[in-house]
Amino acid sequence: MASLLRAAVTWGLFPWRGYCSRGTQGKLSKDFVETLKAVVGSPHVSTAASVLEQHGHDESMHRCQPPDVVVWPQNVEQVSQLAALCYGQKVPIIPFGTGTGLEGGVCAVQGGVCINLTHMDRILELNPEDFSVVVEPGVTRKALNTYVRDSGLWFPVDPGADASLCGMAATGASGTNTVRYGTMRDNVLNLEVVLPGGRLLHTAGQSRHFRKSAAGYNLTGLFVGSEGTLGLITAATLRLHPVPEAIVAATCAFPSVQAAVDSTIHILQAAVPVARIEFLDDVMMDACNRYSNLNCSVAPTLFLEFHGSEQALAEQLQRTEEIVQYNGASHFSWAKEAEQRSQLWTARHNAWYAILALRPGCKGYATDVCVPISRLPEILVQTKEDLKASGLTGAIVGHVGDGNFHCLLLVDPEDADEIHRVEVFAHQLGRRALALRGTCTGEHGIGLGKRQLLQEEVGTVGMETMWQLKATLDPRGLMNPGKML
């Protein structure tokens, strides 16, 4: 079987995923594929070129690198059998959810078996009194919130895309509600994980869903954000939150990036319990106005949302309006009706498509860094200047309440010079975040694109420790190879 393995190949960011490249690598034997069918059934195994290409990329611009075969297990027992089979034959394993990642995390750099977990889509257990729920990997965040709606609870982690919840755990996702409700790391209580050899691990103990523990190593935290490099997450126990009594959204425009970010810091310092606080620069606001039919000022803007009682919201709005006006804000307006709030946040979530519409035919690239709140004004102002100096078309948007922001860049895939300038800009931004004691990624993850930056961030000892953990759990290096490390 070893002769069937592909050689490890490291690809750069370009050309884009549309150019599927298999090179001279081999394919898995027919006997091995038949064995996979014996585990999950013939209808749940595919070697069709279009299916392989679909599973060889995510939403990033990394080159499409398809697996040799895609399988759809129906339950955890089948996942365990598949893992044992692949590991025993030294075949790489690539977990796949909704494919909405942004760092090439599903690219099959060494070929192998892509395990698509979306057919496992049951909500296994709801414990409303304990504010917890257990979901399989095919359950998305929107599906979960529809299911628990009548219980008065919701799951607030919202990365924008309707991603699978276990995939969100695997990438350590967060999003617009993080400033109040935390990231996936704060909202995962327990994980069921199939380890590389097929053994089943419950990171906090089987069926346990306590709120806190001082018992041993934090195994749950180890697997949250591991990007499929240590095992396959087959169930997640998640923390739920009460649906707020009332919700109000607000917008305000500012004369400068500095003024908008200063307002963010002042709002947090004043202990206003804001649920969302999003920054959009002038380019992003112009794009959103065009794409989502908004009528907002074309200026650096904050989108905010407040959760609580009617009385509490009135106080929060009053305090926030005082702060933003002190920093020169104009057009402070708020919306309580669900339809108006939905229009606002739909426009924010569609920012990616709005920016793409500015240059039809171009590809998009999204950066992601996070810095301490105190350094946010400095890096945002400098990044805006760098973006203008680069000559690139792009916008800045971010979850500034957490110190996290993105640059959304447009690139002509036929323009080598523009491609180079994007690469230079992205690495420069990552290193600037590190210089300000921040991180090279607040929520997108490492994947293929930020491995060098990760090494610079955690240092030699940090990387050695990660490699030791990887070697202990995955001694053959077959779990999503080429990612993160």
Query: What's the story with the biggest beta sheet?
Result: 8 strands, antiparallel
In terms of structural class, how would the helical and strand content be classed?
A: alpha+beta
How many beta-strand runs?
19
Low-confidence runs: 1-25
| SS element count, helices | 16
CA distance, first residue to last residue: 25 Å
> What is the radius of gyration computed over CA atoms, rounded to a whole number of angstroms?
23 Å
User: What would the average pLDDT be, to the nearest integer?
Assistant: 91
The amount of helix comes to 25-40%
Q: Shape from CA axes?
A: globular
Describe the structure.
The protein has helices at 30-40, 49-54, 76-88, 141-148, 165-171, 178-181, 184-187, 219-223, 257-269, 282-292, 310-326, 338-349, 351-356, 376-390, 416-435, 451-473; strands at residues 45-46, 69-71, 93-96, 113-116, 123-127, 132-135, 153-154, 188-194, 200-202, 232-239, 241-242, 246-253, 274-280, 301-308, 330-335, 363-366, 369-370, 393-399, 404-411. The protein has 485 residues and is an alpha+beta fold. Strands 12, 13, 14, 15, 16, 17, 18 and 19 form an eight-stranded antiparallel β-sheet that branches. Helix 9 packs across helix 11 and helix 9 (257-269) packs antiparallel against helix 14 (376-390). Residues 1-25 have low confidence and may be disordered.
Set out the fold topology.
Elements: H1 30-40, E1 45-46, H2 49-54, E2 69-71, H3 76-88, E3 93-96, E4 113-116, E5 123-127, E6 132-135, H4 141-148, E7 153-154, H5 165-171, H6 178-181, H7 184-187, E8 188-194, E9 200-202, H8 219-223, E10 232-239, E11 241-242, E12 246-253, H9 257-269, E13 274-280, H10 282-292, E14 301-308, H11 310-326, E15 330-335, H12 338-349, H13 351-356, E16 363-366, E17 369-370, H14 376-390, E18 393-399, E19 404-411, H15 416-435, H16 451-473
